[in-house]
What does this fold into?
Amino acid sequence: MAAAVRAVESGERSAASFFNDAPARRPAAPTAPAAPAAPVHERPRAAAPAAAPAPGRPPSARPAPGPGGEIPGSGDVRQVLAAGGAPESLAGPVAETLGERAAEALREDPWQLLAVPGVRPDQADGFARALLGPACEPGDERRALALTGWLLERAALEGHTALESSTLRDALAKVSVPDPDEALRTAIAEGAVLVFQDALDAPPGARPQAADDEDAEQPVRVLLGLDRYALAEESLADALARMASTFVPPQDGEAPTGGPGAPEWESSAAAAPTASAAELVRTVAAHGLVAHSGGEAARAEPAALVAAARALGLRAYAAAHSEDGRRRLAASLGEAPGADPEAASAAVTVAGLLADAEGPGRDEEGALALDLLAVLDAPQLDVERAAMLVESLPDGARLVLSGDPGVLGSAGPGRVFADLVAARRCPQVVSRTPDPGPIGELVSGIGIGELNQVEAPGKEVVIVPVRDAGEAVHRTVQLVADSVPRAIGIPAEQTQVITPGHGGAAGTRALNAALKTRLNPGPGQFGGFDPGDRVAYTPAPGRTVPGTVVSADAEGLRLDCAGSPVVVPRTEVGELVRHGWALTAHQAAGARWPAAVVVLPGDATAGLTRAWIYTAFSRGERHLSVVHGAEGALPRAVAEIPFKERTTRLRALLQAQVPAGSTA
It folds into this structure.
């Protein structure tokens, strides 16, 4: 196995040769183990991918909770857990994750416990030793298979949709798998892991390959991934390729195909509020897929596009990542030139659109009943949600993915917006509208790797140096409760604290405890919460909804989330609700507040990147306070560490499917 993988990495063999001892010529383009696709313009629109169970799980469906809220089969699972020394509290999650045969599955393969969120390898090993006794060995094939899937799921939490084979081999060695190469061979043979090879860019200075040189080597990388993310990424690439080929760019003097003609689009472009908005309108007139980038002020440009398209009779909508983003978008739509009185209703959230709770609904074929969709905050789209969204668009629709390229990527796996931009397979409109004021000037500099001092006569930007984490917490509470309300006129409930992580002496837990004590003291009578507490509600992974506790009763914890009532069942409060005076930058992405207090304690500098700083510093509309204990780590991160790398396949897939001249 080691020789085979290294042979592919060096260019001597193809990924397909893992299953064939005969040598094979390496293809020049990125490939995946799938049949050749039909031409893009002939490919039918596939159903949106559903989340697949992790490798190794039984195929049985997840059982629904019974009348008492207990998952069927939990009783049998408790007996197995008790025999293995695992806590009975895992019974529900195990039954929900592994299905109706959960108890039997655990007896046959104790390491399937790793499929349950939160279970670590050492815990699964202890459970297996208790059940198997002397038969439990580090090299057990079942252990290797479970650990391979667990490592790839962990990688997905860090944004990767696949891992390079060498990276996964090293990770298996670190969790004491005796023969990582044999483990990978088994995982591939069992179908738990898929193998891909992607072409790499030629190194600088390399001699260009001649067109007739069939034997010339092209560098490739071997990737291993779970089918769940592979299917989502390939489905997304197919759908984006379909949209990129929807409209053929017109020749001189010809009208764009689809919908209004050239004169109507040109008239709308001429009425656009800015030159960048006009450029966006003209580009969308001729193309089915467009990437648009810019800062906060540039959000008005897709809003102007949607308003113009609606004025032309198209069913046009705009979707934002958060409810706060939707409200700001609705305001921009209402203010756009020529907007109809109902324009604000065209602003939706991505989650609401996919759930059919907002927007136009679906047609008889199950596609969204629209002609144009502009997705703002596009960097927040993970690959699975993006695939579901794009696959839901009808044939002939136009799609604009718009976002700020400087912000953090999605909380889930993938780098959809960045890969689309890097692939250069659709037109790209870069806004020339700068963000105003001292905060805009500061953030713009950070975006190009410069941490500049800015003039802030109105105290728009304030730096508060601190020596340690304890002082950072003290000064943060002081800023939120006293200084910002008094000096800036922004009340505490409109100020958001942002810090790098949940743990640590100045993480969200410590800061929220201190802020609750000062701003809303109470005994935490409802599962640690009191009426009036600010909270962060997480209805789905990667999606954070700010809210306020109203009350609690037998049904659960009652929240007010931006005017919408939400009831969180008692059994889910501990998992889905946190205090929300302080958030991480990932949780805050896609939303803005009148004031932001960014906390940079000295013990949290290891994870700082330019993207994190850019995101955190740009969350305040009128005021930004920086509680600064990071010393030289802050300017170093801005100048030298743009972002955390993610291993994905979307860029290569798009470049393989969409002709290079399609951006014309």
Summary: The chain has three domains: 1-8+80-201+219-225, 232-251+259-433+647-657, 450-639. Residues 1-62 have pLDDT under 50 and may be disordered. The chain is about 35% helix and 15% strand. Residues 232-251+259-433+647-657 form a domain with the Rossmann fold fold (CATH 3.40.50.300).
